[in-house]
Amino acid sequence: MKRFFHGRALAVSAVLATAALASHLAVAQVDAAKSSVTAVARQIGVPMEGKFKRFDATVNFNAAQLASSHARVEIDMASFEIGDAVTTKELRGKDWFDTAKYPKATFVSSSIKPAGTNRYEVAGKLTIKGKTVDMVVPATYRAEGASQVFEGTLPIKRNAFNIGDGEWKDTSVVADEVQIKFRIVTAGTAAKK
């Protein structure tokens, strides 16, 4: 049960991370082989990490034209894996992701602002399990040849999205805070500076 709860929190984190990354991408395809979205949660103080295997992003990023830059990210919630088949299956259930009713999580950006050299804050709405929350996602950007690389870590509160209903709302076993770590790499033309 503890492992299951932690995995759920990880999945939420992963969703947010993907959203953050995507909001910094130019209009280009995501290179899935080089990209990753993971979530780290603590269960009885011990960190546990899981990964979303499938996600997609539509982005338009230009550092010189942030006002017209935008992104939309979709995550397949049933693609989350935490390394244990029983726990992974449990996370798809009603108390956690409820993937039968809420198969996708989305992030849609509303603004992108500079936050230092090659650093940005991406504001937008994150929707998980039917619950929408305003978020500001910190991300870094760099060009690698014709590709763009966006990375960051976003802390979220799992209870804000009803991830872990019933007895799992108690944060004494599985912490409320989840760290979403993301690395998004696009294939194609790098963003203009």
Which terms would index this structure?
Lipocalin, YceI family protein, mainly beta, 193 residues
Give the helices and strands, then pairings.
Blueprint (H helix, E strand, L loop, with lengths): L1 H21 L6 E2 L5 E8 L2 E7 L2 E6 L9 E7 L3 E2 L3 H7 L12 E11 L4 E10 L2 E14 L2 E11 L16 E14 L6
Antiparallel strand pairs: 1-11, 2-3, 2-11, 3-6, 4-5, 5-7, 7-8, 8-9, 9-10, 10-11
Could you describe the 3D structure shown?
The chain has 193 residues and is mainly β. The chain has a single domain (2-187), classed as Lipocalin (Beta Barrel). 15% of the residues lie in helices and 48% in strands. The chain is built from two helices and eleven strands; from the N terminus they run H-E-E-E-E-E-E-H-E-E-E-E-E. It has helices at 2-22, 85-91; strands at residues 29-30, 36-43, 46-52, 55-60, 70-76, 80-81, 104-114, 119-128, 131-144, 147-157, 174-187. Strands 1, 2, 3, 4, 5, 6, 7, 8, 9, 10 and 11 form an eleven-stranded antiparallel beta sheet that branches. Helix 1 packs across helix 2 (85-91). It is globular.
Category from helices, strands and their pairing: mainly beta
Low-confidence stretches: 4-26
**What can be said about the biggest beta sheet?**
11 strands, antiparallel
Topology order in helix (H) and strand (E) letters: HEEEEEEHEEEEE
Could you tell me the mean pLDDT? 80
CATH architecture: Beta Barrel
Based on Cα principal axes, name the global outline.
globular
Helix content: 10-25%
Radius of gyration: 16 Å
Count of helical segments? Answer: 2
Separation of the first and last Cα atoms: 48 Å
| The CATH superfamily title | Lipid/polyisoprenoid-binding, YceI-like
Strand content: over 45%
